[in-house]
Write a structure and sequence with these properties.
Number of strands: 7
Number of helices: 1
Structural class: mainly beta
Strand order of the largest sheet: 1-2-3-4
Distance between the termini: 27 Å
Largest sheet: 4 strands, antiparallel
Shape: globular
């Protein structure tokens, strides 16, 4: 956990941002299972232009997080940040 920042928790899982590459990770704290998602860095271009200062601070300010597990086991992660008028959406695996 020293190389990650906790962004949020949802349904007992932790949403992390790995420090060295900004990858988003979903961690089950009891089993240690981890799913990787695209880096938070991919959202920098969507931060509201009127915001001043460090854009990373705004990206890490999560308003809401939701997960969904499909019948085939793919996990979808949705996050809404205060700095964007969009919801970020990613699916685990090769989907």
């Amino acid at each position: 956990m020293r190389s990650a920042c906790v962004l949020d928790s949802v349904d007992g899982l932790l949403v992390l941002q790995r420090d060295h590459d900004t990858a988003i990770r979903l961690l089950h704290p009891f089993t240690g299972d981890i799913l990787d998602f695209p880096p938070l860095e991919t959202l920098l271009g969507y931060v509201h232009l009127g915001l001043l200062g460090d854009k990373w601070r705004y990206l890490r300010d999560i308003m809401a997080t939701s997960i969904n597990v499909s019948a085939n086991g793919a996990v979808s992660l949705m996050m809404m940040q205060r700095c964007m008028t969009r919801v970020a959406f990613a699916t685990s695996g090769k989907q």
